[in-house]
Fold aldehyde dehydrogenase (NAD(+)).
Amino acid sequence: MSPSKVASVKFDEFYNIIDGKQRPAKQQHYGVNPATGEKLWAVPVGTQQDVDDAVVSAQRAYEKFRFVPIEKRKELLVKFKDLYMAHVDEMTELLKKENGKPHQFASFEAGAAALWFDHHAKLDLPEEREEDDEKVITTRFTPLGVVGAICPWNFPIILCLGKLIPAVLTGNTIIIKPSPFTPYTTLKIVELAQEIFEPGVVQAIGGDDKLGPMLTAHPGIAKISFTGSIATGKKIMAACAPTLKRVTLELGGNDASIVLPDVDVKKTAPELVMGAFQNSGQVCVATKRIYIHEKIYDEMLKEMVAFTKTIKVGDQDSGALLGPLQNSMQYEKVKNMFKDTKDKGYKFAVGSPDVAEGKGYYIQPTIIDNPPNDSRIIQEEPFGPIVPTQPWSDEEEVIKRANSSLTGLGACVWGKDIERAERIARRLEAGSVFVNSFEKPTPQAVFGGHKESGIGGEWGKEGLKAFCNPVSRSLL
């Protein structure tokens, strides 16, 4: 590592990183600070030539990097972590500007990246062995090649490093496409990575909506790892079919929380609210439907409303709990959900039916009291700070209601009777189920969805396999 190079890193200049070098572009685009509408820094728009050059560099680097021992790859990742953490304050400030997160949550995301480094540094590639009187069968997992990572805008640091770290640990090289809404932290992370890794191991190309299809269609890319919407995930899967690329798709969800009648209402109500409204509801595994037993429905709703009224919404340095929605596209989508809810005459337990227009993409957290099962607010994922509640009385019926979705990303069950809560949890059709906690993904557990919430999973021991091919060898 060159201290002079580290000291020269500028956090107000941004480039694509191809073959270890900073590469500008003729065409540029600009992110927007969602709290103010202010135009941020220029970012180069990648071209087909940039993609082709990056793939050539990644393939060349892969031929050497795949044979680097895993312990050496871990050492490189530890060095990368140390370098990244030396700039965590700058990353926090970038994240606040590009994403709109309040300071405490931007600082948490930027710092939590260390958990992904630390956990993966403890992992080894799995190896399976079976033996009988005739033969010994060994199954090992080998890297795929060049990984294309297409990242979202809601957690740009964690979801960039959550792909980069396991890809590199398993011996792959990686080309990362950040969201055009939040390109800055990702491009800077990859720029820092050049101090640690050989050219071509870790690269990044920023761009517009034309860039993703260039990656998915490229025959030199072995795998696409995508986090984003269901609609885009389906397009990516179709685009990868002609070259039979491996795909991991982590898509949207419509997570249900089931609240049993024995919970501590005052303790549980704020947790339910935070599960729904964390990051202004812009979380794929945020709670999006809340089913509360009828015996405690009115009391729980009253406590949830009271807590919601205490939530401050504001800009990144105001001390607010919730910031703005990240971009105008999502802002308009959520506003449309409010309009539909108002037009249908559903009851607003807290929050206004009319979104106040002003500076920044702000929406006050809102709870909808007992809308019908066929309502949009029940059936669709708003990805914003609005959540419906419904009462229930029959356990079998509420499990069916919770599972009656095309998605299956996360789910929660709340109750003092742990045996009952776990029995219900085992029947919920979701990739991650939490008991007495709102949804909190962790690097220690594989993360992925059922049904239209995606294919495959990443993180945890099992997640390493998503970046590998299994190879079985028989010795007779």
